[in-house]
From TrEMBL:
The record marks 57 as: Crucial for catalytic activity. The lineage of its organism: Eukaryota, Metazoa, Ecdysozoa, Arthropoda, Hexapoda. PROSITE patterns: GNAT_ATAT (PS51730). This is Alpha-tubulin N-acetyltransferase. Residues 279-290, 436-455 have a biased composition (Basic and acidic residues). GO terms for molecular function: tubulin N-acetyltransferase activity. GO terms for cellular component: microtubule.
Amino acid sequence: MEFRFNINKIFKNNISRIGNSLLPAGFIAPDRRTALDTTAYVAEIINTIGQASAAAQGLSQPVTTSDRLRNCDEQVVYLMTEDDGRNGLVVGLLKIGRKSLYVFDKFGDTKHVNAPCVLDFYIHESRQRSGLGKILFEYMLEFENLLPEQMAIDRPSEKLLSFLRKHYALTQKIPQMNNFVIYDGFFASQESQKSDINGSANMHITASPNSNLFGPQFISEDNPKRRSNSRAREEAPMVQSQAFGRYGAPRPQCSLNQIIHNKPVTAVQEPNRPIYYPSRDDHNNEHEENVGTASNVEELAQDMQSLDVVGKSDDDLPNTPSPSVSPSNENDDEEDQVDAKNGTGYYQQPEYFDDPENSQNQQQYYRNQQNLHYQQQQQERVSPIPNHYNKRQTGKKNVSSIIVGTDNKIEFDQIDDKGFGVVKINRPIGASSRSSTHEHLNDNESIHSHESSRTHTADGYFDLKFFSHRLW
Ligand SMILES: CC(=O)SCCNC(=O)CCNC(=O)[C@H](O)C(C)(C)COP(=O)(O)OP(=O)(O)OC[C@H]1O[C@@H](n2cnc3c(N)ncnc32)[C@H](O)[C@@H]1OP(=O)(O)O
């Protein structure tokens, strides 16, 4: 590879080591101007041979550029030149540098190493397979005081793999998940550099593929399984997690790990986490009352079932529907109708039930009952507040009302900024005047159906008062 300038004045030896100064080691410039010119020439040489190396490897971008070399303290380039009696030739490039890597050892555990790496290696096509590559590589190993197996190879080509196999008998690769190739014997030389991200000498990060999901786990080197180099995992390895911080939280069992190690995959058991129900008085730190565990939820459900619905307690009701009943479920609708006809329904039946011409009203009645039931349950979950609390006790300022009409439309009517919401069921849309709504607003009344209202119309009125956060 020829250049427009005489490279023999720059490189006094066949192999020159160049660092981030872009001047060959031992180069002496008579003046500053010469130094700057030489730097520019070396930059041009490096860029040119870097391009040639990338082309030889089929890379779209060169791995070696003068800018990268200038800006990196950890990398050096070995250039091989020939004196052809004219301007001289550049015939080879070898770039190495230390890199901080997470690599798998032969047991599949991840280790953090700061390893010397072969980053770029190129011998001009006219000189390949003539032994120059080995000369250049040997020079580098000697200068850096390294063994070939100590080096990690960055994306080696088939030619380089063959080169290493032939000259250094490197055949036993340790599989990695990154582009680096390391060989057996790599870790024997890394003992002195062993460390983890905390700098601890006796810990390392596991190679779990779930590390990205659940965070790294730190396994002690004192683990007897690691000491014995046994990969049989009859018992769970001792995993030491950080007691605090990001990785301090309990992690779910890694099912992939169980599959890989042929263990029965157990169902993931959710920890008994506290359940937080939104409190109306969060700002008063009273939400502690609303924090419970799953068992508390059952108690809450029992409390809900014991509430008086439409003036009738559960004790009077032979068939209490499941709390999970969905108001939109048509089948459940039918079942409830049958129950009601048999006198085993959950709610009281209005008089028009006996009128066969009123079947539409009956259906509407059941739908509304189920809606009410569902909304009550939802309301209870969000705001499990004794129904005798008044506005002053709850401190709420927002009042709004929902009016559910006979055609299943819901009218949500905000009256003014007071404290509670009211759902009015079975009222004609828009027919409920604000004044009449106000008349029925009594903060001391229960969240259940409004008996007095229901008597005003054959459709029946069921007001549901609720505590709500302000929506608008
Ligand atoms: C991390 C990296 O840099 S990966 C990129 C490596 N670089 C390249 O692939 C660029 C193209 N190749 C080259 O530049 C050179 O072939 C090098 C640098 C790999 C080796 O340099 P050479 O001067 O050819 O090596 P040298 O002559 O000392 O050793 C020759 C041995 O290298 C291997 N080798 C070299 N060229 C080839 C080739 N075309 N095909 C297969 N093996 C080859 C063989 O093992 C060969 O031995 P053999 O001739 O008995 O089969």
